[in-house]
Amino acid sequence: METVQIRAGELLLRPWRPDDARAVHRACQDRELHRRVSGLPWPYEAAHAEAFVGGLAPRLLAAGTALHLGIFDPAAGGEHALAGSVALNAVDRDAGTAALGYWSAPWARGNRVTERAARALLGWAFGDGLGLARVDWRATIGNHASRLTALRLGFRMIGEEPADGGAGRERWLAALLPGDLTAAGTDVPDPVRRAARTFGGAHPTLPAGALTLRPPEQRDVSRIVATRSDPEVVRWGGVPQPYTETEAGRHVGRTVPYRWARGTEAVFAIADEAGAYAGSVDLHILPGDPAVAEVGYLISPWARGRGYATAATRAVCAWGFEALGLSRIQWRAEVGNVASRRAAEKAGFTMEGMLRQALEINGVRRDCWVGSLLKGESA
Amino acid sequence: MIVPTIPGQGVRLRGFARRDVDDLLAGYADPAVQRFLPPLPVPFTRAQAESYVSDVAPGMFAFGGGLYAIADPATDRLLGGIGLDKVVPNRGQAELGYWVGPWARGRGVATAAVRALTEHAFHTGMERIELLTHRENPLSQRVALANGFACEGVRRGVLPNRDGGRDDLLAYARLAGDEPGPAERALPDLPGGELTDGVVTLRPLVPGDVDFIAELHGLADVVATTVPPVAPSRDKILRRCACAQSHWLAGERADLVIVDAATGTPTGDIGLYYQEPSTGQAMIGYSMMPAWRGRGYPTRAAQLVSLWAFAETGIARLIAGALPTNLGSQRVLEKAGFKREAYLRSRLPGNDGRRNDDVQFALVAEDLLTEGSRLDG
């Protein structure tokens, strides 16, 4: 592959040189960078940087199989001139395909450096540069910063794949065709942006009056089992029985963190004044409309009659409008589930109607009430 | 290289022979074969055909796959070709491709040949056979489904086409351990190919409907009821018409044209979107040309689609939404037996980041049983 230099506004993209090693080494001391980029050694030594910029990158470039470019902002001084890296890996000129990768230096984040650099590189690679027909993107599920950049570039999510060997972390998979590449300044809708910021961070703990909403923990398992085996919860919530510590352990250790990482659902344990599990409340984003979510809650049998569901719903909805950019939070419950309806109404929900046979609980289609709380409304 | 002969139902797979050259030339001159086999050189010369039967086809066996002639078992005449390539030995995986000459179509040759070769491959150690079909090639998708291949997704831009662009391919696959028999279809074909009550006829949308759909969905009041309310581009309409049959075969949506039964004139469209197969819930939506409004056609169309859905599919609940201001559509739904169930605030994306309310209607099977169908409109 020929040596390339690409301009992206004030940014310059060029192949790595041996004297970039110091700056690369410094950038790669950042833990956040390692969380986002897979395959980098840790601790990241000076020798790693030297081997990469002076050995591996030029070798791959000469072989024509990968194009690793440094992103430089000449206006920033010294080592801070290095803003990040953008690369086309697994370049296959015959098939017209490659895979995009990028990282940004910790001091250069927040002004879409990688997005601007990647857009310039992709424009070049789809055009006269490499004549590519498709570029793939992969990221560990939960790397919402990278996903947001990919979405802004026009990538379309295709699905998920297990990591190499099946044992590692699962990855998102997306592809970009030449006509998909967006113009500079393209952005995604506000709820998508907010959800990426929220789900890309740690699962928070939220105050809810005297209660606290927090991620469920392993110490909650016995109380979760007792709650999800309660006849009222089983009857109205359709929890498959028997529900044992195995299911509860999987719920805490897998289901909740997976859904958080995917950005599809936020599940909180409702903790009482003593910090003990007293129920659960969640927001599930509707597939196909990032501005709408559905709220669900269940209260442990020993904690009922104290307004916990109302307090938890108020708190999680206020958080959802702000942190997820929701416009509408929907509530549905089987007709006759008066306790759930009272809690929703007290939390400010407006009843909107009755949907016949719209829920399937314990294998039977059931009529359900539907109501909503809109952004700007409160109890 | 001795190519095994593989028997099938009304076909026999065998090695290519010099006597196949004329039929091979005729098959490869067919526009449909040329369209869906873009690696095929056009024109395909006699010299290339001769080299194909003597060298290229036998040579394919060296890579673990193979290329067979599909022959008539009675006359031995060439009917088409079929092969396995892109073999990944450590995955026990290969890709199947085929063509059938125009003289041999319409009698299940492709389905029988695919079945014979797939079973042969599984018997000889393959675990997974892929069949990549063009989105706009519903006949090939039917062959895959008839042989129990499951649609796994789409390979975007994977096939260079003859215009310098790239086409998507649908990825179908069958595993050695899959249940025998054809793949189940969530949306089966219409009985007799259409639905009619004598006044309106519903027939599947086809690629030739592009101009009609473009006119219909360019109307300001039709755009206003679209979600989100944006007129579709010409390109989007082209794709919608070209892919309508593949969407139907995949069980995603049934796109129909509402035709005036007396004159055969297209008057509107109605679609059934199987949005929630897990809960048996589907949605319908429709649009009418202004000249044909006020005759109860959409009511009739909604009733025909509902009766078909409850009788022929696993759909248990049909929903439809209307903007609060769209009283005409609400009246249509009520006349078709749908019940108004809820007024959902801010349910739909509108223009410029605004949201629209949605009046929700639904029809469940019992509604038809208790009230009977009202095909008088």
Task: Give the SSE map.
The complex is a heterodimer of chains A (379) and B (377).
Chain A: E1 6-8, E2 11-15, H1 21-27, H2 31-36, H3 46-63, E3 67-72, E4 82-92, E5 97-104, H4 113-126, E6 134-140, H5 144-153, E7 156-161, E8 171-176, H6 190-199, E9 206-208, E10 211-214, H7 221-228, H8 231-237, H9 245-262, E11 265-271, E12 277-285, E13 292-299, H10 308-323, E14 328-334, H11 338-346, E15 350-361, E16 364-374
Helix pairs in contact in A: 1-3, 4-5, 5-6, 7-9
Chain B: E1 6-7, E2 12-14, H1 21-28, H2 31-36, H3 46-59, E3 66-71, E4 78-88, E5 93-100, H4 109-123, E6 128-134, H5 138-146, E7 150-160, E8 166-175, E9 195-196, E10 200-204, H6 210-216, H7 220-224, H8 234-249, E11 253-260, E12 266-276, E13 281-288, H9 297-312, E14 317-322, H10 327-335, E15 339-349, E16 355-364, H11 365-371
Parallel strand pairs in B: 5-6, 13-14
Antiparallel strand pairs in B: 1-2, 2-3, 3-4, 4-5, 6-8, 7-8, 9-10, 10-11, 11-12, 12-13, 14-16, 15-16
Helix pairs in contact in B: 1-3
Q: What's a quick, concise take on this entry?
A:
The complex is a heterodimer of chains A (379) and B (377). Chain A is built from 11 helices and 16 strands. With 379 residues, chain A is an alpha+beta fold.
- Biggest sheet strand order of chain B reads 1-2-3-4-5-6-8-7
Identify low-pLDDT runs of chain A: none
Structural class label of chain B: alpha+beta
Intertermini distance of chain B: 68 Å
Largest sheet of chain B: 8 strands, mixed
Write out the strand line-up for the largest beta sheet of chain A, numbering strands in chain order.
Answer: 1-2-3-4-5-6-8-7
Question: What percent strand of chain A?
Answer: 25-35%
Task: Give the strand tally of chain A.
Answer: 16
Description of the structure:
The complex is a heterodimer of chains A (379) and B (377). Helix content of chain A is 32%, strand content 30%. Chain A contains 11 helices and 16 strands. An 8-stranded mixed beta sheet of chain A has the order 1-2-3-4-5-6-8-7, sandwiched between helices. An 8-stranded mixed beta sheet of chain A has the order 9-10-11-12-13-14-16-15, with helices on both faces. In chain A, a hairpin with a 6-residue loop joins strand 12 and strand 13. In chain A, helix 1 packs across helix 3, helix 4 packs across helix 5 and helix 7 packs across helix 9. The longest helix of chain A is centred in the N-terminal third of the chain and has 18 residues. Chain A is elongated, with a radius of gyration of 25 Å. Chain B is an alpha+beta fold and 377 residues long. Helices cover 30% and strands 32% of the residues of chain B. Chain B is built from 11 helices and 16 strands. In chain B, the strands form 2 sheets. An 8-stranded mixed beta sheet of chain B has the order 1-2-3-4-5-6-8-7, with helices on both faces. In chain B, strand 3 and strand 4 form a beta hairpin. In chain B, helix 1 packs across helix 3. The mean pLDDT of chain B is 93. At the A-B interface, strand 7, strand 15 and strand 16 of A face strand 7, strand 15 and strand 16 of B.
